């Protein structure tokens, strides 16, 4: 698996070769700095640690400052580890090297995108799970249109089963979207155009895996 860290710029649409209007997401992918290279001998597995986004040194913990200095780079905002980087990157992912989007992806590749979905706070069952509500305001139902209804039996099992869909905090979860196609690469601006939507708000971090 190989990949890169990026930032979601926003959504747009383009026309495909056959005239279809395709919704797509613009991502600023990299440049990322290699801050650590792990191997089987010392760590038990092969992996490459990439860092992305500038961060003020005064807001960076001292252990991380030393970690970044060892790689010969400035403090970064986001650090992600990619296991089993592809063989063709041998020698290109040494400590301190810079990885850019067109080194990892080519147009036509299919990638998986990982992001943090938008947080929506505490929500009811209609918004959170798509419930239809109790129904019309008849037979005394004057204030229960968006309520969940029954959540369990009485004498048995005398409890509410785990996993019952109820109101609660919505969003803010790690979400992975599979098989998004790389439609266009702009290497001079480190931009990728991928098909479909990606979880998260604008300017949120996105992890792309191949």
UniProtKB/TrEMBL annotation:
Q: Name one GO cellular component term.
A: ribosome
Which residues, by range, are in coiled-coil regions? Answer: none
User: What is a single Pfam family found in this protein's UniProt entry?
Assistant: Ribosomal_L3
Q: Does the keyword Ribosomal protein apply?
A: yes
Which InterPro entries is this protein grouped with? Ribosomal_uL3, Ribosomal_uL3_bac/org-type, Ribosomal_uL3_CS, Transl_B-barrel_sf
Name the Gene3D superfamilies for this protein. Answer: 3.30.160.810, Translation factors
Keyword entries, A-Z? Ribonucleoprotein, Ribosomal protein, RNA-binding, rRNA-binding
Indicate yes or no for the key word Ribonucleoprotein. Answer: yes
Q: Could you give the subunit structure recorded for this chain?
A: Part of the 50S ribosomal subunit. Forms a cluster with proteins L14 and L19.
Q: Which NCBIfam families match?
A: L3_bact
- What role does it play? One of the primary rRNA binding proteins, it binds directly near the 3'-end of the 23S rRNA, where it nucleates assembly of the 50S subunit.
User: What family is this?
Assistant: Belongs to the universal ribosomal protein uL3 family.
What's the protein here called?
A: Large ribosomal subunit protein uL3
- Cite the source lineage: Bacteria, Pseudomonadati, Bacteroidota, Cytophagia, Cytophagales
């Amino acid at each position: 698996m190989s990949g890169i860290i990026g930032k979601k710029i926003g959504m747009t649409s383009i026309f495909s070769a056959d005239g279809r209007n395709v919704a797509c997401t613009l991502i600023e992918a990299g440049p990322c700095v290699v801050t650590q290279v792990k191997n089987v001998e010392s760590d038990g597995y092969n992996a490459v640690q990439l860092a992305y986004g500038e961060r003020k040194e005064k807001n960076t913990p001292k252990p991380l400052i030393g970690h970044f200095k060892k790689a010969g780079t400035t403090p970064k905002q986001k650090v992600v580890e990619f296991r089993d980087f592809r063989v063709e990157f041998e020698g290109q992912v040494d400590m301190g090297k810079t990885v850019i989007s067109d080194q990892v992806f080519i147009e036509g590749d299919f990638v998986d995108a990982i992001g943090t979905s938008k947080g929506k706070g505490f929500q009811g069952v209609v918004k959170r799970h798509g419930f239809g509500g109790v129904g019309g305001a008849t037979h005394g139902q004057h204030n229960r249109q968006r309520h969940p209804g029954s959540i369990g039996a009485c004498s048995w099992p005398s409890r509410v089963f785990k996993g019952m869909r109820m109101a609660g905090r919505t969003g803010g979860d790690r979400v992975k979207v599979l098989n998004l196609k790389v439609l266009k690469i702009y290497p001079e601006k480190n931009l990728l155009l991928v098909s479909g939507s990606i979880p998260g708000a604008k300017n949120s971090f996105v992890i792309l895996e191949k």
